[in-house]
Amino acid sequence: MDIAASRAQTRVLVLAAPDRLGGDPGHWWQTAQSLAASGLTVVVQCTHATARHLGQPVHYELGVSA
Asked: The whole model's pTM is what?
C-alpha cells in the first residue's frame, strides 16, 4: 500500500481481499486507516468476519434478513 500511495498520481487505493491469506488484519487495517487519514480514498473489500473482527459494521450480508 505504501508503494502505491507514494505515487503522485494516486488518489484511491482499493484493497481487494487483503484477508484472503490469513494473518492479523490489524496490520493492513492500521496502514489503510493511516493512508485514509492522509487524504487518500481507501476502499477495502474483506469478509464479514474480518470486518467484525476489526470492529467495523457490516451493512449487508447475503442470506441474512435485515
From this structure: 0.81
